[in-house]
Write a structure and sequence with these properties.
CATH class of the largest domain: Mainly Beta
Bound molecules: heme C
Oligomer: single chain
Strand order of the largest sheet: 3-4-5-8-7-6
Number of helices: 10
C-alpha cells in the first residue's frame, strides 16, 4: 500500500507541477486512485483505467498476486491432474536437481538456450550457449561486449532462460525453463578464469583456432563478458518422468538462504 500511495503521490505531484493544479486537486486524486491487489492472470483493462506511463509496470502500482492456485501450471505441478491426486507424483528437490543437471549436461557441457531479458517493459530474446554448474545452480554464458542483451542485464538483472529440445514426437518432450538474476563479470575478475577452467567448455575455441588453451582463455577474458545467472526457479518438462510414475512437470525452487 505504501508503494501505491507513494507512486500516486509522485504522479499527482508531477501533474500538479505540469498543469499548476491546486493542492486540493492533488489530494482528491490521491484519494480516488487506489490500486487494489490484482491477480497475475488479470487481463484487459477497463476504458477508465488510469493511463500507464511507459516503463511503469502493473507491479509498480498494484500488488500482483502470483500464487493463483488455479492456473494451469499449478495444476500440472502439484494439483489434481489426470491420474495424479493433489500433491502426488512430485519429485523430491534433490532428484529434480539431478534431472536438471542431465538436461543441461553438467560441468564442461553447454546448451544453446534462448535468453529473455527486459527493459522498460520491452522484452528481448537472444540465443547464446550456456553451461550449468549443478553445485551452485548457476548458469554461465560468454558474450561479445556491447550487445543489447548485456545492456538490458545491466539495467535490469532479472532474466529467464529456456532450453528446448527440438520436437520429435508427442511423448518425447524435453525442456527446461530457468528464472533468475544475472550479473556480468569481466575478465579481470579471478572468477572469470575459474569458471572457464571448471565449468564453461571454452576448450573447443582453442581447438578451432589451433592455439593453446591458456591463450584461448586470455583471448576470451580480454574480448568477452561472462554472464552469471543465479537461478531461483527451474521448471523441467520431460515426458520421460511419466514412465517413472512422476508428473512430467517438475519444479526446483531456491529456498530462502
Ligand atoms: C500508474 C499506476 C497503475 C499502473 C501502472 C497499473 N494500474 Fe491498474 N489500476 C490503478 C488504479 C489507481 C486503479 C483503480 C482505478 C479506479 O478504480 O479508479 C486500477 C485498476 C485496475 C483494475 C480494475 C479495473 C480497471 O480499471 O481495469 C485492474 C484489473 C487493473 N488495474 C489491472 C492492471 C494491470 C493488469 C496493469 C498492468 C498492465 C495495471 N493495472 C497497471 C493503477 C495502476
Amino acid at each position: 500500500m505504501k508503494k501505491i500511495f507513494f507512486t500516486t503521490f509522485i504522479f499527482s505531484l508531477a501533474t500538479a507541477l505540469m498543469f499548476g493544479s491546486s493542492a486540493g486537486a492533488v489530494e482528491k486524486q490521491t484519494e480516488k486512485a487506489e490500486a487494489q491487489q490484482i491477480d497475475a492472470a488479470a487481463i484487459g483493462l477497463s476504458a477508465n483505467h488510469p493511463e500507464i506511463p511507459q516503463g511503469v509496470t502493473c507491479n509498480d502500482c498494484h500488488e500482483v498476486k502470483l500464487d493463483a492456485a488455479t492456473t494451469a501450471t499449478q495444476a500440472w505441478l502439484n494439483g489434481a491432474y489426470l491420474k495424479y491426486a493433489a500433491g502426488q507424483g512430485i519429485m523430491p528437490q534433490e532428484q529434480i536437481k539431478v534431472e536438471i543437471e542431465k538436461v543441461m549436461g553438467g560441468k564442461k557441457q553447454k546448451r544453446t538456450c534462448v535468453l529473455g531479458t527486459s527493459l522498460n517493459n520491452v522484452p528481448l530474446t537472444t540465443t547464446a550457449d550456456f553451461a550449468f554448474d549443478p553445485a551452485t545452480m548457476t548458469i554461465y554464458g560468454l558474450h561479445e561486449k556491447g550487445t543489447t542483451k548485456l545492456f538490458h542485464i545491466q539495467q535490469n538483472p532479472k532474466v529467464s532462460l529456456n532450453w528446448h529440445e527440438d520436437f520429435k514426437s508427442w511423448g518425447t518432450v524435453l525442456c527446461a525453463q530457468f528464472i533468475g538474476t544475472a550479473e556480468l563479470i569481466d575478465g579481470t575478475k579471478p572468477e572469470f578464469e575459474k569458471v572457464l577452467v571448471d565449468i564453461y567448455p571454452y576448450e573447443e575455441l582453442a581447438t578451432a583456432m589451433k592455439i593453446e588453451p591458456q591463450q584461448a582463455r586470455e583471448m576470451v577474458k580480454k574480448g568477452m563478458l561472462l554472464s552469471k545467472i543465479t537461478c531461483n526457479q527451474i521448471t523441467v518438462n520431460s515426458s520421460a518422468f511419466e514412465k517413472g510414475g512422476m508428473r512430467k512437470y517438475q519444479r526446483w525452487e531456491q529456498t530462502e538462504k
